[in-house]
Amino acid sequence: MEDDDLDKKQSTDLTEETLEHERSELEEAWAPGKGFYGWLTDVDHKSVGLRTVVTAFAFFGLAGLLALVMRLQLAVPENDVLGPDLYNQFFTTHGSAMMFLFAVPVMEGMGIYLVPLMVGTRNVSFPRMNLYGYYVYLIGGVLLFTALVLNIGPDAGWFAYVPLSGPEFGPGKRVDLWSQMVSLTEIAALVGAVNIIVTVLKHRAPGMSLNRIPLFVWSEVVTAFMIVFAMPAVMLSSTLLSMDRLTDVSTHFFNVAEGGDPILWQHLFWFFGHPEVYIIFIPATGFVSQIITTFSRRKTFGYTALVLTMIATGFIGFGVWVHHMFTTPLPQLGQSIFTAASMLIVVPNGVQIFCWLATLWLGRLNIRVPLLFVFGFFAIFVMGGLTGVMLASVPLDLQLHDTFFVVAHFHHVLIGGAVFPLIGAIYYWFPKFTGKMLNEGLGKVNFVLLFVGFFLVFFPMHFLGIDGMPRRVYTYVEETGWGDLNLLATVGAFTMGVGVLVFIVNVLRGLLSGESASNNPWGADTLEWSADSPPRPYNFQNIPVVQGRHSLWELTDDAPVVTGLHTKFRELLCTTIHDASPEHRYAIPGPSIIPFLLSLVTGATFIGFAFTPWSIPLGMGASFIVLFGWFWSNSTEHRPPHLPEKDNPVYDEEGQTE
Amino acid sequence: MKRTKSKLSIVVLACAALASCGGPQNALDSAGVQAGRLESLWWVFFWVCAVVYVIVMAILVIAFLRNRRADEKSAPELLPDPAREQRVSNIVKGAVGISIIVLFTLMVLSFRTGRAVNSLSYAESPIEIRITGNQWWWDVEYRDPVPSMNIRTANELHLPVGRPVKLNLQSTDVIHSFWLPNMHGKIDLIPGYETTFFFRPDEAGTYFGQCAEFCGYQHAKMRFAVTVESQEDYEKWAAAQRQVPPPPVDPLQQRGQQIFLTSVCTQCHAVAGTTANARVGPDLTHIATRHYIAAASMHNVHDHLKTWITDPQRIKPGVRMPMNTYAEEDLNALVTYLENLK
Amino acid sequence: MKRAAVLIAIALLISCEREERGFRVQPPQADRINSKQLTTLQPGESIPQQVVVNEYEQNAFALTEGKRLFSQMNCVGCHANGGGSIGPALMDAKWIYGSQPDQIFATIVEGRPNGMPSFHGKLPDYQIWQLAAYVRSLSGQTPKDAAPGRNDNMQVKEPENSKDREKPNDASLPKSAERPE
User: What is the ipTM of this complex?
Assistant: First the structure.
């Protein structure tokens, strides 16, 4: 249903006066509240996204500190820095924090920030749900680390295999609190994913048909779909585990003697666990695509192939989980199928690598810090992917499973494949986030320290694994001869630590006294670079009409823009899924305290569930009451009270103007 | 930076070479037929992956070094030369095709190796051993059709060269994993499942294995020692293990036995030929023949035995064995008794 | 909701006790108290009755250790899993030799007529305190969040952390030997 006001107008119709008037109205309608309360209620996707990224990096730092202490413990044989109980809590918290509290949230946070800007809209589809997701994530993360400090840190591994995490062998409330942290962070991930999917499908700027969507946005959409299908599996398994352990519930899902099965836990967990790592990796491939395109100064080679490979990886990623279980007594034929699938998934990854190499080969390179991190990505991730091919083979995995070889492998693919692109992406988008540039020289030092440090830590671990060192060991006897390589790894770990410090220093320095950035300091091609640095709360004064895949590079001087969206209150443009032609308007809510309140109720419900099953019905009741407030305001939000009736369009039930 | 990286990599490789070329707990120093097959498969994969990595890195480094430079103001290339694009596109397609073929080949090799290593399950007259994983020690029982020929020991295996071994694996508590790298891959011991696992040691020597699935506080030190020896040596050992140790004649040892039988020890341990018959902890009947104690994490010498008995929690915090207090002479007598349980 | 939050906060804060894994700790203070007083009658002023508290009852690890020992030291052979067979039931309200922690400790260490063996010198003191704490949990005397959950075996009774608290009634002790609750 076309709305007359949204016809494309000629640029000559937009006078300076009209533009100025619209700008001031937009500023007022989209302004967040003031002070701390304003910050608490701010539903601007940029604010939520940035908070998520900063919080994720805080957890990254904490988890990294845990890793440094672990490396100190393992530096020499029979060390006594940490006893077994503390070491178990440390490595469990390190793994859980990195996977649940850093890797997925940071990728989602970058998506929440960048996706609306890249698709050319003003906010995500469900701003309050976005903010709610952040608070729930924050509560889950604080829960985990508070538990660690209070000696209730989980100690059964981030994967919490039963029966070790079960009621008989995991006394106390440690694993219960871990389960609740999982539930909370997965709720946050799910709401973020829903927001990204709907925003990308329904709110793209006109002209941005499916085959013109930037590669990073594609990566976030694929990831969001994976989150929707994978997260429920781990929430289910952690809830079943909680029920097995809980007073007055005491189910037997994982109790063999009463019909349960410990292998059920492994299936449920890894059905989530494997897609989880692709959820972490695929957005990073989005970063790599964007950075390579910008710094090769040419259109991306193989755009369609890159999109299809991300989708293929998303699908195949759900079919490889048993490769974490090759040493269990599952039938050989079944395991072989997963070998085949695990090798198959290398093919789309290979296509991506080749397309990127082609872009680099054919382009003219602007070698800046983001591109250095992409170089690091290749050097490290490709090695990790190749050790992954080794691990995909059942016979080889029988030797390598649960050894430091696997630790080396996944740190290569996760740090090389996700963290390096992420740091590169921060260097790349920092000017957009803050309006300041990060220092190039410090950036190069940052890169070298991280790169060299990484190899010192994780490359020797391949040899340790082959030499018989299993994972999750708090120490080892002198006779094994593992001391030298472990010491080398510890030295590397501290080198990486210094690298992370340099990064933090660079960021702080940039914030305080960095060089001012223009709107598009890198000469990049995607839409977010046409907004201010940092963008205004409403992102674009006029939503652009997209003319090609590399929007800013293909923008002509007489490019049309969208006019006619209301500026007196918050409104987004809805477009069709396939070719993004304008469809209708969609008003979205402004600042609200309800997401914060609901997150407190959700947090209390789940934390209480670790102690008593009554928390669920009570929590649901409290949520119901708070949700009243959430949904009540819908009918009035289209009529901001301070506007006189005649300026207010009146919407009927279908959202049509009367 | 690149020069530093290459120097570093040489250092790292040297260290690695020293550490992983061989050893008694090393997956690439095969002493058994299956580990041998796995080692061959490993080298195939290793060289394929190494070549791929070198090629990819070479392309990357050359692209970085040889390309003309640009900066953020350079006009981006939106309409590149179609012929060049087509050429590169063909190369990419070719590379993908080669990757698929290589991966397929590796997969087939993997399947063949998998079938080969499992083919030992058809072996005739293997030595049958039941291994029960506990937190945090291995209960080992050699099973014979004649029950009186059974041998019970803990945390160690003695095996004759060249004879297939059939392990029946089970767990009493949590998931453990039996891993003897020089012989074969690992197999999980899952409560409620009884698994069968075959291997065949082909070279004499002493090898070590370790639990490879996180099982709690002392997962790190849940080791075991395997001695592979000639058939005659093995028979001698087995025969000695089946003997009941004679009662001690030396007064110090008699006192030690009395302390053993009347104090805490018999609540968990068994010694054949005495009234000590508990199955909670490792069987101590022939403890003096073992080279290691405490799940193969310490040498079996007088001082270690004394420390282990009085303060195991300092050596292995969280282990099931409690701390005990004995007078000095009593402890000495006890340890002397144990040292003579051959 | 605020009260629940406060309760949960308190639960989390005092969890330090519940979550301690004491591998090399001293046994509870309780063992220093002389528990061999069978009557309150004393010459002159009586020593004030000391209520003995077994800290292990708050500790989840100690209770699980007690449960493990209960099975491994074959307490189940006579007491079954608390229901009793040739030995008395331990999950009910009837306590022949007293339900207080030190009384249970004494019962295990000293042995009792009609078949309860004496574990004197057979188990270190701290393990007997762990057993005593577990025995108390069988009749629900320990906090629910510390008591063991269901075990990974065939279920023969409800788990200790679901057991409602029994009110102990010390059946065969004379009134003069009664202890404060």
Answer: 0.93
Q: Do B107 and A351 touch (CB under 8 A)?
A: no
Q: Which residues contact A451 (CB under 8 A, 6 or more apart)?
A: A376, A379, A380, B5
As a three-state string, the secondary structure of A328-348 is: CCCCHHHHHHHHHHHHHCHHH
> Exposed/middle/buried for B73, CB within 10 Å: 0-12, 13-18, 19+?
exposed
Tell whether B116 lies on the interface with C, counting CB pairs under 8 A: no
Query: Are B296 and B223 contacting, i.e. CB atoms less than 8 angstroms apart?
Result: yes
Q: Distances in Å between the alpha carbon of A392 and those of A337, A343, B99, B264?
A: 11, 6, 15, 49
Report how far residue A296's alpha carbon sits from residue C96's, in angstroms, rounded to the nearest whole number. 86
What is the sign of the dihedral through the CA atoms of A389, A390, A396 and A401? negative
User: CA dist B41 to A468, A632, B36, Å?
Assistant: 18, 65, 9
Residues 6+ apart with CB under 8 A from A542: A14, A561, A562, A563
**Does pTM surpass 0.90?**
yes
Q: How far is A170 from chain C (nearest CA, A)?
A: 8
Class of domain B251-339: mainly beta
Given a contact cutoff of 8 angstroms between Cβ atoms, the answer to whether B321 and C72 are in contact is no
Mean pLDDT score, B284-288: 94
Domains of chain A are 4-283+522-608 (1.20.210.10)
Domain span at C107 = 54-181
**∠ CA A202-A205-A210 to the nearest 5 degrees?**
65
Q: Which chains neighbour C (Cβ–Cβ under 8 Å, 3 or more pairs)?
A: A, B
Q: How many domains does chain C have?
A: 1
Strand (E) or helix (H) holding A459: helix A440-466
**Contact between A257 and C12 using a beta-carbon 8 Å cutoff:** no
Mean per-residue pLDDT for A177-186?
A: 96
Q: What is the pLDDT of residues B230-270, one digit of tens each?
A: 999 999 999 999 999 989 999 999 999 999 999 999 999 99
Map out the domains of chain B as residue ranges.
Answer: 251-339
pLDDT digits (tens, 9 = 90+) for A589-646: 889 899 999 999 999 999 999 999 999 999 999 999 999 888 886 544 444 444 444 4
pLDDT digits (tens, 9 = 90+) for A52-65: 999 999 999 999 99
Would the CB atoms of B106 and A343 count as touching at under 8 Å? yes
Tell me whether residues B220 and A263 touch, CB distance under 8 A: no
CA distance C47 to chain A (A): 37
Contacts of C115 (CB under 8 A, 6+ apart): C78, C86, C87
Q: What is the CATH number of the domain that holds C155?
A: 1.10.760.10
